[in-house]
Input
Amino acid sequence: MITLYSQNVWNAAPAAFRNKLTDSIIRRVNPDVCAFQECGPYSIRTGEAPLPELISDLYTEVCPELSEENYTAVFYKKDKFSLLDSGYFLYDGFNDANSKSVCWGLLEEKETGIRFVLASTHFWWKIDSEQDFLQRIENANQLKAFCDEITAKYQVPVIIGGDFNNGKNSEQGDEPYQYMLKQGFCDIRLTAEETTDEYTHHDYPKLMEDGTYLCPTMPERNIDYIFTYGKNAPKAKRFEILTDEISLTSSDHCPLIGYFEF
Output
């Protein structure tokens, strides 16, 4: 069983209090791999308690040389996996702070030899014009082109965790999500043996005067997903969205957990 933790950890400072919450959630879940979005160099990665440092006793970052620009970070358990290849690219077109991107790693489980590519991604978010909506479709096309290339090259499936900025109840609608399903992406929410109907996104946590945050409302929309792509994709045994108080306070996006059997 391989467990993925995926979360948009909210590129906002101060982040120390929330980073510590995220660290506590990760240690509770004990995932094998993590995919973060909005892992900002001036928020999540810096200050009193940078998230990468908090988890560094267990996890190694893919493409660490890009830590000052990579918002879509991927981490893996260094005692369980070998990193065989890796990469990072920005999406073409609209971008803000160069945060709309893909980071990926080709991982091999040391004990079994199982190989797969893990990717973290973040799609465009604005809704001001028709071009904003088309940009998310283009993000999906570019992600598919990457997945087709990487699966052909290595003959392995791809697991993708990300903030796709569209879906049920979202202001962006769900056209890119539906388009991705038609293009061969598999949403594990729909296929996992055990799944949930919880939503993924809610109001921003409120910053208090003492640097802590106040837990907001429950999530009300879906914009975050875990997808698989390619032949011989692993079977999703369980899909969870964490909505306990700590998880809600850590970000405006809930943690998504996928449990896979190869």
Remarks:
- The mean pLDDT is 97.
- Helices lie at 16-29, 51-54, 130-154, 175-182, 188-191, 245-250.
